[in-house]
Amino acid sequence: MSTLTIKNLHVQLADKPILNGIDLVVPKGATCVLMGPNGSGKSTLGNTILAHPAITITKGKITFGKEVLSKMKTDEIARAGVMLAMQHPQTVSGVSVTNLLTIAMRKFAAKQKNFKMAHFRESIKDTAKALKMDSEFLSRSLNEGFSGGEKKKMEILQLALLPAKCVIIDEIDSGLDIDALKLVAKQISKLRERGVSVLLITHYNRILRWIKADRVHILHKGEIVKSGTDALAKDIEKNGYSRYINA
Predict the structure, then answer these.
(1) What's the rounded Cα separation, in Å, for the pair 86 and 50?
(2) What single DSSP character describes residue 209?
(3) Alpha-carbon distance 124 to 121, whole Å?
(4) Whole-number average pLDDT of the chain
(5) Domain extent listing, the chain
(6) Do the beta carbons of residue 156 and residue 178 sit within 8 Å?
(7) What's the pLDDT band for 174 if we cut at 50, 70, 90?
(8) C-alpha distances in Å from residue 62, one per residue of 1, 82, 140, 238, 240
(9) Contact 55, 89 (CB under 8 A)
(10) 3.40.50.880, 3.40.50.300, 3.40.50.720, 3.30.565.10: which CATH number matches 4-245?
(11) DSSP character for 36?
(12) pTM surpassing 0.85?
């Protein structure tokens, strides 16, 4: 496992500056939380790490261990073990969930000793059951006809099953009821137990009731304006952002 390091990152989207000098470290196996008002650049940061084609890095560097992510394509970044759970998951017609995961896993399986695809398929079923997803979803096209909450669970299902080393999880808690949130949080905590680095983007403290946060950062107007412990997230929930973004 490696450390995700972002140094002096400046980013533009449609020629508009969005991120203005981000410095952020997500250590190996740690969970860092990124919070901030709407439009602060949180999702843009996640998409930048995964090399979204609409985003331009004008200055700075993103590394994961020895890999320079800011010089890599999205598929190369994913193969390096850095993955993104999207805020708005896409529908992929004609490709079932099981087939998608099986095809993706074949890319990694060659590097794993004693890997058995039959065992992996059973793991798909077991993880779906743990997330209380009906097995019928596994044979359907990815996210086709899924509710918002089901799409979010499907993002976590993929992260749980693929050999991720670092994950960026973008507002997974939006659209989930409290029971679904607990199930999702449990799977995220299991990632931590595996030594996976987690960058969790969220508006709310509630998911942190079930996930241990090593560090909490507030992003505002493309800059990190405050960092602290999980107590910072609790204060934001109680008092809002004003004391930090208007200082």
Answers:
(1) 11
(2) G
(3) 5
(4) 92
(5) 4-245
(6) no
(7) confident
(8) 16, 12, 36, 33, 30
(9) no
(10) 3.40.50.300
(11) -
(12) yes
Q: Which tokens is 96 given?
A: 């079932």
Question: DSSP E strands: which ranges in the chain?
Answer: 4-13, 16-26, 31-35, 55-64, 67-68, 82-85, 92-96, 141-142, 166-170, 197-201, 215-220, 223-228
Phi-psi region of 175 (alpha: psi -120 to 50; beta: other; left: phi over 0): left
For residue 154, what are its two tokens?
Answer: 């499907």
Q: pLDDT grade, residue 105 (50/70/90)? A: confident
Q: Which of 71, 66, 57 is nearest to 19 (CA)?
A: 57
Tokens of 200: 């969790």
Give yes or no for residue 219 having a pLDDT over 80. yes
Of 210, 198, 86, 82, nearest to 148 (Cα)? 86
